[in-house]
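This week, think about what follows.
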Amino acid sequence: MKRGEILWLAFEKFAIVFSFVVTFTLVMLLLATAIAGWQHRSLLESLRAGLACDTVTGLNTVLDDFENAVITRTISISQTIPVQFDQPLDTSLNVELTENVSLSRPTTFVFPAGGGQINGTVYLELPEGQVLPIHMRTSVGVSQTLPVQMDVAVAIPLKETELGLVINHLKELLAPLQLGELEKRLRCSAP
């Protein structure tokens, strides 16, 4: 036999033994892991169930707190606001003339006891400072800008905003994992 063939046979034997040892070792490790896992299955299930129960319970608590949260802030307002409206006036008042007022009115004078009548014109002058009672019925247009400066306290419950819809949707997604269903599936106990 040649030296190359001898080396080749030695290598084949070594490879077969090495492959057997590695395969045997891996199979034994796999069996040992399976046996240990089988023995500790209840421990792993209880850890998994506890973790799932705690997570779902924690999520529900956080969502409840988030839903019941109220944003409170004080908002400062500093701006001008245009104001336009018609104000009706219906009132009696006294006015004072600021200058002499001349009046000329056509009139008819009737004489007593059937004496007839005369058409004519009356000329009259009201003096400056004369006080006249009047009744005013009109509408006054108001067009102004008003400065507004104030602090407004605001309280916004999150469940009354668009976030309330998002929170409800998250709760619906977690509903299948509620504690009662989770207990049935994972046999966990309520905290």
About this structure: DSSP finds four helices and four strands in the chain. The longest strand covers residues 70-96. The mean pLDDT is 82. The beta strands are 70-96, 101-111, 116-126, 131-157.
